[in-house]
Fold each of these.
Amino acid sequence: MDAKDMIYSRRSVRKYLRTSVSDDKINDIVRYLTSIPALDEDISLRCDILGADEVSVRQTWRAPHYLAVYSEPKPRYRQNVGFVYQQLDLYVQSIGLGSCWVGLGKPKDSSGYEGYEFVILIALGYPDDIPLREIGDFKRKPLEDICDTLDERLEPVRLAPSATNSQPWYFEHLPSGEMAIYRKKQPKLIDNVLGKFNEMDIGIALAHLYLAYPLTYEYEYVVDSPSPKGYIYEGTIRI
Ligand SMILES: Cc1cc2nc3c(=O)[nH]c(=O)nc-3n(C[C@H](O)[C@H](O)[C@H](O)COP(=O)(O)O)c2cc1C
């Protein structure tokens, strides 16, 4: 299956075989990663592939591999990580592997890279369960809750994964034919934990739109754009 087809059938995998992923598949993943377009090509990213014993994670389950993602901390770098790594996440699942974003974890070795910030782990391995599902089995908000006027073209975003399934995106149609994408503001205490993950969620949503409409998709961040009360402006798109 194509990476973009996984939008409609993927799920987070939290049960893995102990077997390591073959070198061939790891090489395919690395090759695919270098071909992925970014939201902002001026932000440099790095990634390590670590074993389960090289990360500390809060979950009770373990995967044989974890991608540790690092980014230069430039404006909207978390959105950029979400955009790039969700494309990789869909690819990984399209070659028969399972994956799951892991917000609550980090590499045991915290030395990292000069000029880069550790952003997130992504679990990876052979799934010990069926990693696919039907659209009806996605637990998601209805389309009318994520946009101002019903727009079926947003279905790929509706299905996108997000931290704690918070689905923090909202779309407003603009007179120009474009749409503004907003991120829902969380209450202060929740924002302290979830805010940075919700920034990645926005990039994840944009990745689904880009893959669904690769020929027409355009994204721009217009500085000083207004946003409705309770929302944060995250960009203007055309699909
Ligand atoms: C940024 C981010 C962080 C996440 N962190 C975790 C995590 O720490 N542990 C976990 O089990 N799932 C984590 N998830 C997976 C979400 O819980 C999951 O995507 C969401 O519940 C929707 O389910 P689905 O991916 O199966 O569609 C994370 C997802 C995202 C996008």
Amino acid sequence: MNVYGEVFAGFYDRRFGAYAEKAAPYLLRFYALLPDSLAHLPILDLGCGTGRLALRFLEAGHAFVGLDQSSHMLFLAENRCRRFVLERKGRFLQEDISRFQIGGPFGMVVSTYNVLNHLESEEKLRLCFRSVRRCLAEEGRFLFDFQTLRGIHEWASTESAQWEAEHIQCRGELDETRGTACMHLKGEVEGNAFEEEIVNYAYPLEKVIRWLGEEGFKRPDFFRIDDLKTPLQEPEKQNRVVVVAA
Ligand SMILES: C[S@@+](CC[C@H](N)C(=O)[O-])C[C@H]1O[C@@H](n2cnc3c(N)ncnc32)[C@H](O)[C@@H]1O
């Protein structure tokens, strides 16, 4: 489960990479508006995937560290950002984001496209928050997107499709009582077969607020990725929210 193997990593990059690309300009703008004291600090990306967000930040002059548990996703990330890796401005490390220890301080810790929804327990989510708190600069921000309960419901039903042109079968399955959605993907890319199960866990946002608070963060605000200035009044009614904690 949530393996992101070799064949799937390439498929993911082509099929889903656009999400991080679209998020990048909003995140860059958000970071530019934070206090000047953060401007020279590196950025940390949890579940950096194939490095699309990394490349945008590196190109904008920020040092960047990406963590991911999949060596195959990291391989693509390193390739994509090779120039910056050679200059030692970009680093990609194989780590479990629910228990990592890294220096710092980082000006911002980001995570895009449901990565934190991959953590399957309250304990793992809290350990992740604790690790972030330890490496985040005093005035820094922790910003991650998160599928709500409503969001995983939608995800499990609308993504259920067969991408015939790509010979991929995709079936979503919802377990409403556990608040989980499982996406089964099966197919072939250029003659190579793969099978993956991506499981997303949704947690009530009130709990996320409480756990963040207990790990040393102030009460977070919730936004849409394309408007990181106007807090949402009813975040639980969205499919996906961006959580910003300090
Ligand atoms: C949906 S992808 C998102 C990738 C990238 N952030 C993006 O926006 O395209 C989820 C990523 O999180 C990684 N991941 C999932 N659970 C993880 C964990 N516990 N520790 C580290 N990485 C994890 C996966 O390997 C995968 O690369």
